[in-house]
Automatic annotation (TrEMBL):
Protein's name in the database: ATP-binding cassette domain-containing protein
Residues covered by the ABC transporter domain: 2-232
Listed Gene3D superfamilies: P-loop containing nucleotide triphosphate hydrolases
Lineage, broadest ranks: Bacteria, Pseudomonadati, Pseudomonadota, Gammaproteobacteria, Cellvibrionales
An example Gene Ontology molecular-function term: ATP binding
SUPFAM superfamilies cross-referenced by the UniProt entry: P-loop containing nucleoside triphosphate hydrolases
Matches recorded under Pfam families: ABC_tran (PF00005)
Keyword line: ATP-binding, Nucleotide-binding, Transport
Protein family per UniProt: Belongs to the ABC transporter superfamily.
Entries under PROSITE patterns matching the protein: ABC_TRANSPORTER_1 (PS00211), ABC_TRANSPORTER_2 (PS50893)
UniProt feature coiled coil, ranges: none
Length: 289
């Protein structure tokens, strides 16, 4: 169990990226959802001890991590949002290099672990190729392979599915699901669907503050019977809560939150995490009428 308590982070230019963030994260995948600039990467870097918070503490199974950041570094695997790979070096050699940097000094154990992570990420057949020549999906799997070196208890994954085609995304989902059986996984993404597929728990971060953290289903089950969908063309009452509008086969459709059906051509639809997320955003911005 990872326990964050009252974490604050301000950058030297005065940007207050994290404000009073408290979170308890157990085994399995916890999704971290938030708009651009809400502080997701800042939180992930802070958990990975790549930057220290101004105040607050972090306990791993009851042990204070900031007293000994090196202890946590050995227990954390981190996949940053953007990562580069050296050119002219094979996938295997790069993993070996990274494993040595992680302190895997025993050659036999190191090679066994590299073989394991290559197998898990389905890269064994590409071990001698250069990651700089990998496709986007393979590169993300390589990123996860390097994060798994050292058998971390905690995995921090910042936007692992961005830019992947549907087949690679599905493959990544299976991989993450498998990895998360025995680990604490914090997954940051803009893709609400990924969280719906993967995360039993979800935290919503807006403007550096956690505004919700619960079972993913619980976050939107309470909206049952209150989400309405219909064409945006007709006139709608002024006091409706427009959550989102999107195109379905070229027709502009609105999703609305409300106790009553807003117009004759609207129908009740099952609520989604995205509806709940948009409602939290509107409430945070004071836009709920
Ligand atoms: N090194 C830094 N120095 C100053 N400000 C920073 C730094 N890193 C991030 N910020 C600022 O902190 C805030 C949170 O940024 P962060 O990258 O953590 O958000 P994010 O939710 O990950 O965004 P995105 O979804 O766009 O990746 C933003 O206002 C950003 O401009």
């Amino acid at each position: 169990m990872l326990n964050l308590r009252k974490i604050y982070k301000t950058y030297p230019d005065g940007t207050r990226a994290l404000k009073d963030v408290s979170l308890q994260i157990g085994t399995g995948i916890t999704g971290l959802l938030g708009p651009n600039g809400s502080g997701k990467s800042s939180l992930m870097r802070t958990i990975a001890t790549l930057q220290l918070p101004d105040s607050g503490d972090m306990l791993l199974d009851g042990q204070d991590v900031y007293q000994d950041p090196f202890l946590l570094r050995r227990l954390v695997g981190y996949l940053p949002q953007h990562f580069g790979v050296y050119s002219y070096i094979s996938c295997y050699a790069l993993l070996e290099h990274l494993a040595i940097l992680k302190g895997l000094n025993n050659k036999v154990q190191r090679r066994r672990q590299i073989d394991q992570v290559l197998d898990l990420t389905d890269l064994t057949g590409h071990a001698n190729r250069q990651p700089s020549h990998f496709s986007g999906g393979m590169l993300q799997r390589f990123g996860i392979a390097q994060a798994l070196l050292g058998e971390p208890k905690i995995l921090i994954l910042d936007e692992p599915a961005s830019g992947l085609d549907p087949a690679e995304r599905t493959r990544l989902h299976q991989l993450l699901h498998e990895i998360a059986q025995t680990r604490v996984v914090l997954l940051s993404t803009h893709i609400v669907e990924d969280i719906e597929h993967l995360s039993a728990h979800t935290a919503i971060l807006i403007n550096g503050e956690i505004v919700a953290h619960d079972h993913t289903l619980a976050l939107f089950r309470s909206l049952e019977g209150k989400i309405w969908q219909g064409p945006l063309s007709g006139s709608l009452p002024n006091d409706i809560q427009l959550l989102s509008q999107c195109l379905y086969y070229g027709e502009s459709m609105a999703r609305i939150f409300g106790e009553h059906c807003p117009a004759a051509d609207f129908e009740a639809v099952p609520p989604s995490l995205q509806d709940s997320y948009f409602l939290y955003l509107k409430k945070y911005r004071g836009e709920v009428v």
